[in-house]
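Researcher: Please predict.
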Amino acid sequence: MRIFLLLFILTFTFGCATRNIKYDRNKILEKYSADYKMFVDNEKMDLETLFLNKNNIENIRIDKRTRELKITQLKPTELFAIKNFKLDSLFPDRTIEAKRKIDLIIIDGIPMTDSLKENTKIDLNAIKSISILTQEKMNNSTFGRRYDGDLLLITTK
């Protein structure tokens, strides 16, 4: 009986060490980013500076023993670096829009500072909408400071 109980406890303990979860970027960051190593398709990445397409997520596996969170995608995607972002890629036919300067980029409510812009990558398929708030509209509204360029708002799926 003792051996059966010991085997049951060992099986239960090791069986619950890994589990699958649903992709919710904010909850994952809140709960796991400080203590866990994050992997996307077996490549170590920082999820705080990464925006993935949740429709392309096949599996998210958490291993409590090794403190690893592994995200597997259905198909590998090319990630776009925010530091290389230019308006002419959005408006190839409009030269007026392409000449505008972007002073601030906000992705899902997170302002991209210069240090974040250097490291942040996004799956272009993860973008739900993009909108531009012009300098004139921003400086006429009640923002805390004046901006020299436009504000780019990006929301993801």
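Model: The mean pLDDT is 79.
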